[in-house]
Amino acid sequence: MKITFFQYRYGAVWVWVKNIYFRITFSKITTFFFLFSFLYCLIHSLVQSFLYSYDHQADRMASSVVREADVPQNEVSWLTRSDGIYTLKLCKHVPLTDTNARDCKVIFRSDNSSLNIPPGYRRELDQSNSGSELVTANLTQTCTRVLSYADQVLRNSRREELALIGSEFWAFGLSVFAVMYCSVPHLLADFCMRFLSLVWSLYSIWRTLDIKQRFDVLITNGACGHDLLPGYFEHRIAIQIIDIVLNFIAFLLSIFFVWKLIKTYHRKTFNRIGAPPHVMRAYKVFLGVLTCLQVAIYFLVTGNALWIDQLFNGPLAHISSHNTEYIIGFTIINVLLLPWIAIGWFAIRLEMKRTMWTFLGLGAFYTCSWGFLYYSQVFRWTWIQWPFFACMTLSAQIAELACVILAVVCYKNFHKGLAQYLHAESALAKDDFEPEVFTNDTESVPHRDSFEVNFKSISIYSDGASVSESKVDHDIKLIGDSRCWVFLRSFVGMNGTPK
Question: Has the keyword Disulfide bond been applied to this entry (predicted)?
């Protein structure tokens, strides 16, 4: 019977779906881990969506006042605190130098009410959310200028919530990939994401209280004399408490699931062949590189997206004079990201020296590019004024640097047997080889107390080509065990040479 292309594709998709189902339901621990990851992604994204909704409503009020009052868009707000005195300035240049700082105009000082400018702007405040009626407030020019600072803070809060929602889907994707391919690096990367999410939620609630204090001084008890954001902080803090509880529970469950799954995958991987200690150490470094790569992907992409959004939609869009250069640079970095990760995976797994040098060179380029960015006043200003952006970029830099350092350690471990063991493990995994189905039956196979296998000439490629550059310094001696013997008898000849 002739099979159409559609039937072929449908059959392939059905096989793929069945394979996913089998991987997820392989054991109780994998099933529960998948359900936990899915439900937590759904629930936590919903919580972050509520926070985004509150930020959006508050920012809509502040931005509408700033827009209708014709507040200049080419100025950046600069708030300083000294001895309990709050000083808000508007600057047309990034105030990181003494000259630029002197050009800034003082808009509000908490110890000097005479800075408030009498001419005002009338606006109706919609306080229906708090249960009160519409009231009319006289917003002075100073008040509208102060609200430009609130607008910048609230816009950044919205960006943060969107980035955190994206992190939940990224963590869920890591979990699915870990279950699908029994991947320890993806498990570790997912665990790192859970830990960082918990740390940020703890810091975030403190920062919300700090922002409330700033707004009280600048707006409620300061330039405006009214609470222009009624109920905003109360609702936000309540949701953030729920967020902390969810993150803490998820972190504890992640410890249990990751520990159980790593033990299962680790035993499943090395029980197939029985790796010597030095290969185990090299394998752990290899896992460290892959884990850092998975973590770096999210932080690099998110940090770049936040920076580009600032250049287009933030106050820096009217101040920065090198936006085109920044866009080109970050586009190149994002385009090279996936090839860089693929190069690193193949270079370490197949012990390809030249490819490894390319990977290390790109890693050094990524690391050094961050250093050049700190020379930019616009970048440094964003980094100092926006803690979330600073955390994203700093985490990306740490992950990249750790990746490069561990890759150098992997390079020093080349030609010590890791590539051969990874290839053998992959071949056995494809054939569904499980050591538990073999018993140490010495009668069914020729009995040998021990045997030596020369890995120098064993091919790690499917076409049988020999890897001449793989100069193993010593032969790996394996003590006679029927499961190793059954595998090696099919992989190499009885005398230790390849078939």
Answer: no
When pLDDT is cut at 50, 70 and 90, the band that residue 131 belongs to is very low
Helix (H) or strand (E) holding 116: none
Asked, for residue 400, whether it belongs to a domain, the answer is yes
CA–CA separation, 125 vs 128, rounded Å? 9
Q: Are 279 and 419 in contact (CB under 8 A)?
A: no
Give the C-alpha separation, 135 to 120, whole Å: 16
Domains: count for the chain: 1
Show the DSSP H helices in 374-481 as ranges. 377-385, 387-412, 418-430
Rounded Cα distance between 388 and 302, Å, is 11
**Among the listed residues 442, 431, 446, 427, the one whose alpha carbon sits nearest the alpha carbon of residue 495:** 446
For residue 222, give the DSSP letter: I
Q: Is residue 457 part of a domain?
A: no
* CA–CA dist 199, 177 (Å, integer): 24
| DSSP H stretches of helix in 314-352 | 323-349
pLDDT band, residue 142 (cuts 50/70/90): confident
What pLDDT was estimated at residue 141?
81
Half-sphere exposure of 492 (CA within 13 A, CB side): 20
Long-range residue pairs from 36-44, CB within 8 A, at least 24 positions apart, any chain: 36/250, 36/253, 36/257, 37/171, 37/172, 37/175, 37/176, 37/190, 38/172, 40/168, 40/172, 40/246, 40/250, 41/168, 41/169, 41/171, 41/172, 43/246, 44/168, 44/243, 44/246, 44/247, 44/250
Asked if residue 276 has pLDDT above 60, the reply is yes
How does DSSP assign 428-488, residue by residue?
Answer: HHHTT--GGG----TTTS---SEEEE-GGG---STT----TT---SSPEEEE--HHHHHHH
Query: Nearest-5° angle of CA 394, CA 396, CA 401?
Result: 95
Residue 277 domain-assigned? Answer: yes
Parallel, antiparallel or unpaired: strands 450-453 and 476-479: antiparallel
Residues 480, 447: contact at Cβ < 8 Å? yes
- Between CA 38 and CA 246 the distance in angstroms is 14
User: What 3-state class would DSSP assign to 448?
Assistant: coil
Residue at 133 is within a domain: no
In angstroms, rounded to a whole number, what is the distance separating the alpha carbons of residues 293 and 282?
17
- Taking the C-alpha atoms of residue 126 and residue 259, their distance in angstroms, rounded to an integer, is 51
What rounded mean pLDDT belongs to the chain?
Answer: 76
Q: Give, in degrees to the nearest 5, the angle at Cα 80 between 154 and 204.
A: 40
Is residue 282 within 8 A of residue 201, CB to CB? The reply is no
Q: Which domain holds residue 322?
A: 273-431
